[in-house]
Sequence to fold (179 residues):
Amino acid sequence: MDGSRIVRYFAPKEFSMAISITRPTVGASTDTWGTTLNTGLQALESTLNGTGTGKVRIEPDLTEGSWSINGTAVASTAAELNKLSIASVTAAELDLLNTAVSNTVVNSKAVIYGSAGEIASGAITATSSVTGTSFEIGDWKIYVSGTDLKFQYSSVDVFKLSTTGEVTAEGDITAFGSA
Fold:
């Protein structure tokens, strides 16, 4: 140290450092006390700064699962904590993902698409419109073909509505009857 700076370190309660400095022995370290002190002080400075000659690890060793914050064990790895440090999400947003399951309805949780891009739903409510090129209910399918709207049952076209209002049915049409 050049004497132009003062290093102060205030340790929290129950904090210990695993630093050992060799001190000169009174009467036995003639001509070596300066080197001994300088080596020890260099190790201390390097450790506190995190780099340099003689650096040692400071205790407690923050190994996964071995430390806690206010009594709560921290089980995350350093890599997991580093991922969170760059994420810009709130606790409420993370809670939406907690217990959410791919392509499964979990009420009040985030929607996670299935592997083919599908979404499972108990009901769909739209305040504006729902868009797409087809819609399926059981064995029925309604889809767009060119400019026509077609209806299929069990993969067979049974009904078509054109943009000009023409209706085409594959079978007979019953005008009056009971459903």
User: Anything to note?
Assistant: The chain has three domains: 1-87, 89-130, 134-169. Confidence is low (pLDDT under 50) at residues 1-13. DSSP finds three helices and seven strands in the chain.
